Amino acid sequence: MTLEKGNLLVVDDTPDNLRLLSAMLSEQGYKVRKALNGQMALKTVSQVPPDVILLDINMTGINGYEVCQTLKSNEKTKDIPVIFISALDDILDKVKAFEVGGVDYICKPFQGEEVIARVENQLTIQRQKKQLQQEIKERKKTEETLRVYLHAVSHDLRNPVLGMAMVLKNLLKKAKSQNKQTVEISNGVLEQMGASCDRQLNLINSLVETQQFEMGGVSLNCKPLNLFSLSQKLAAEWQPMLKERQGILEVLISPTLPVVNGDSDRLWRVFENLLANALKHNPPNLKLTINAEVLTPQTSVMNNHEDHKKISQKTQMVICSLADNGVGMTLEQAETLFERYHRGEGAKKTLGLGLGLYLCRQIIEAHGGDIGVVTSPNSGAKFWFTLPIK
What we know:
Layout: E1 7-11, H1 15-27, E2 31-35, H2 38-47, E3 52-55, H3 64-72, E4 82-86, H4 91-99, E5 104-107, H5 112-177, H6 187-207, H7 211-214, E6 223-225, H8 227-237, H9 239-244, E7 248-251, E8 260-262, H10 264-280, E9 287-295, H11 305-311, E10 317-324, H12 331-335, H13 356-366, E11 371-375, E12 381-388
Helix pairs in contact: 2-3, 5-6, 10-13
């Protein structure tokens, strides 16, 4: 049995020519469809585009030139190679054939070997073109993944490093002011520094897997997680940076809140990104509030109708929020915050948040939750995300 080598459409208004050419190509393993006129050819192409079209020129009704021009003017069919087969052998006829978009020209009476060679040449070009397009697509995807990875390294690792750097600088400043060669460090400070080192190591390990966000799969280490405990540790580690910016962080999460099913390291990254962005894109003396509560279909937690509609369908979820009393933003700016490489424009350029919120969205969606923001100019911003209850 001969293997099918390509899908061809033969167009000729002379039945004998059509049968001869179709039979010859079918014997060589090509799948061949036939059309007796230009109108039928256009309809056939629109239904199932062929790999190559062999097209007569002199036909009643729509001639071959007009068929080719119509195909080339259509975005869906413009890339299908058209080989003209015609008794017209004048140089001007051939030139016109190429001008309207033909890729080759065969004069009648044709030789079978020549037709097959020219058809196979176009099929080879098409296969190579598709392969090249796939390689370009994969390369772009790889480059985008690398950009996400590199930005995530610099973005996520900066926060715990800055926190520890501030602690160390304060200790050195204290020792210098007291003219001492050594300085006493409390167990609490040591524990905070150790936690920061652990956080950096966990971030490095998790960032190795960042490309999974772009490859359609995310590896999560979900366990029963107490958000009250997580938020308390977060507030303690961020205290030096909050003090530096004269910011205040209030944690309102109840100790009795049900545990959620989550990856503590990745959710820590979400909270850190939200905190870092709030401090970065607002003036000093910012007041921030972290809260969480059980979300039910009756819970009304958002003042944005679309956000409320989106999350109110969930059951057995906890909704976490980080609110600030900062500069806020417009609805148009908020709509693109969670997209990759989002940047602010014009006077509001300081609101550009890069990849941080994009990574937050990836993490929350991997947990099976949603994420959003409610904000307006000069009225602060309230970022929220949902997590499933264990």
